[in-house]
């Protein structure tokens, strides 16, 4: 069936094993760790949520990440063409790729707005106006920013122009190289924040919240949110990892690479959590403050550090760098599909994607001001885009990818892909991952989705 496809355009892949790891890690690590993970953990009761999220990452996120990359590398094409090429004739598995493209637009719409806040905070930090441990001060600064339609829009356009320029200038590799050098710095800065947070008065409350499970807050909706976060974090369920897999080298060890990415990604999230929760309790913030949590708490922690103002500037710059790697990987899904499938030049594909994002992004940028009263299912557009993508499209994509590999593509092809078409070093691993994909992951996600969405 591969023969039905038009000959693949010449594709440039990653050149070194370490480059592959760095780019994949660059997609996973982003505002998901620094912004979404702490805010969802805070809003959903702490340690119990964390535990479910960890389980979801291992039982569902990791196996789906492994197969997405394997499928991409086998087909060496965009998600739609890849699934058309790998599936038996006329079976519409390519729809996973189409849904992924929709997810990319939804996520980029709100993600670019959060990056917009990060950009704005770099400037605010330089001015020194938000360096305070008084919740009223930091909360007022944040509300003023998100409640101002013009500022929200302009910063978002800045982010979109920035990301579009990187893609148009074809310097994504350069950015990856740069972020490879800067990420250790973000790690160090998070360590410093943790050290400060661990010296605060109510450190015990903060750590108990994060690590001592209290299942009274647990509900089907909370479990679905944790599963959604596991997908969002690892950039899976929408074809991003499939696309990156299509750039993987033939000799790259896929399970080892994914395991490293997952572990490093979890470390960054944990550091962010340890940096934030002791401060939340010490300074009297609400753990359930929602998307504002990081933006109101982080300035309070920095206010306790000598030179905190400038370190905070560095922190938000590094957060923007981390977010850039994630955004570039998301952009790649629609851009490569529009380019390879719909015959647009890469330049037109990039421009079209950015223009569409200006419109769909505005819906999120204005959701706390002009459009604040516009709600669907009780959610404003920012939260709705997040909910639909993270809690519906990504998990559903995960189900279909797992079912496709477990029941259609089959064990032999999966085994061949994981062995790099050569000798397999770990037969057990293939068995375990394949078993998860065939029986465990799809059922687990399905039950969680049906319960979480209150469908049965
Ligand atoms: N994993 C990224 C983060 O946690 O910030 C977000 C993300 C990137 C989600 C790419 C989905 C995606 F395809």
Automatic annotation (TrEMBL):
It is a multi-pass membrane protein. The chain crosses the membrane at residues 16-35, 47-72, 93-123, 154-175, 182-200, 220-244, 256-277, 310-330, 350-372, 384-409, 429-450. Signal peptide: none annotated. The keyword Membrane applies. It is found in: Membrane. It holds the Pfam family SNF. Keywords: Membrane, Symport, Transmembrane, Transmembrane helix, Transport. NCBIfam families: Na_transp. Belongs to the sodium:neurotransmitter symporter (SNF) (TC 2.A.22) family. This is Transporter. It comes from Polaromonas aquatica.
């Amino acid at each position: 069936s591969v023969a039905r496809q038009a000959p693949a355009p010449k594709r440039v892949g990653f050149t070194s094993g370490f480059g592959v790891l760095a780019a994949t890690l660059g997609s996973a690590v982003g505002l998901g760790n620094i912004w979404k993970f702490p805010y969802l953990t805070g809003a959903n009761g702490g340690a119990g949520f964390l535990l479910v999220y960890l389980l979801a990452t291992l039982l569902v996120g990791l196996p789906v990440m492994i197969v997405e990359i394997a499928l991409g590398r086998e087909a060496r094409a965009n998600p739609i063409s890849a699934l058309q090429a790998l599936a038996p004739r006329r079976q519409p598995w390519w729809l996973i790729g189409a849904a992924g493209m929709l997810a990319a637009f939804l996520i980029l719409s709100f993600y670019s707005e959060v990056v917009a806040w990060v950009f704005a905070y770099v400037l605010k930090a330089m001015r020194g106006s938000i360096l305070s441990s008084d919740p009223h001060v930091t909360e007022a600064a944040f509300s003023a920013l998100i409640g101002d339609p013009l500022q929200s829009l302009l910063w978002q356009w800045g982010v979109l122009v920035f990301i579009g320029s990187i893609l148009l200038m074809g310097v994504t590799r350069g950015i990856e190289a740069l972020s490879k050098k800067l990420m250790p710095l973000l790690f160090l800065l998070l360590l410093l924040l943790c050290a400060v947070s661990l010296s605060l008065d109510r450190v015990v409350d903060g750590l108990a919240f994060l690590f001592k499970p209290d299942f009274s807050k647990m509900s089907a909706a909370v479990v679905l949110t944790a599963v959604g976060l596991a997908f969002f974090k690892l950039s899976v369920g929408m074809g991003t990892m499939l696309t990156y897999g299509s750039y993987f080298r033939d000799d790259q060890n896929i399970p080892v690479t994914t395991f490293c990415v997952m572990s490093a990604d979890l470390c960054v999230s944990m550091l962010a959590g340890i940096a934030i929760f002791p401060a939340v309790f010490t300074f009297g913030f609400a753990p359930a403050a929602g998307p504002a949590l990081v933006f109101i708490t982080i300035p309070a922690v920095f206010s306790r550090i000598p030179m905190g103002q400038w370190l905070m500037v560095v922190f938000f710059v590094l957060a923007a760098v981390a977010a850039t790697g994630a955004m570039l990987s998301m952009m790649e899904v629609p851009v490569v599909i529009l380019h390879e499938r719909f015959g647009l030049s890469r330049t037109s594909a990039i421009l079209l994607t950015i223009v569409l994002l200006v419109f769909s992004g505005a819906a999120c940028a204005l959701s706390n001001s002009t459009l604040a009263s516009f709600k669907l299912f009780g959610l404003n557009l920012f939260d709705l885009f997040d909910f639909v993508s993270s809690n519906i499209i990504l998990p559903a994509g995960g189900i279909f990818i797992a079912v496709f590999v477990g029941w259609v593509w089959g064990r032999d092809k999966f085994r061949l892909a994981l062995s790099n078409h050569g000798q397999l070093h770990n037969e057990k691993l293939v068995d375990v991952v394949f078993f998860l994909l065939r029986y465990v992951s799809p059922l687990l996600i399905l039950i969680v989705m049906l319960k979480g969405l209150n469908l049965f």
